[in-house]
Fold this sequence. Notes:
Blueprint: E1 5-8, E2 11-14, H1 18-55, H2 62-76, E3 80-82, H3 83-94, H4 98-110, E4 114-117, E5 120-123
Helix pairs in contact: 3-4
Amino acid sequence: xxxxxxxxxxxxxxxxxxxxxxxxxxxxxxxxxxxxxxxxxxxxxxxxxxxxxxxxxxxxxxxxxxxxxxxxxxxxxxxxxxxxxxxxxxxxxxxxxxxxxxxxxxxxxxxxxxxxxxxxxxxxx
Length: 125
């Protein structure tokens, strides 16, 4: 509103094309807001997608798991480990989360690579 008035004599007077300029200014502001919102939504969707891809990138083949299990027992020098220590070493070597390590523990147990005896883990014969 302040842009549309000019001082004439002792009072302010509206310019003739004031309404047209106000409408243009409002449209420019609204378009800028829309562009910012669209860019924000695109960035958020990109972050969500990248996070999804990062969390679902986890795939494992049996030979790599077998090598990791052998390495754990070779490095510790023990024939038996507690389940907690085994999972901790699995997390350390593979640089994975607790959930992924538990999944791999179950996979190794299911494939017969390790034997679980009362929360103690040993290599299968």
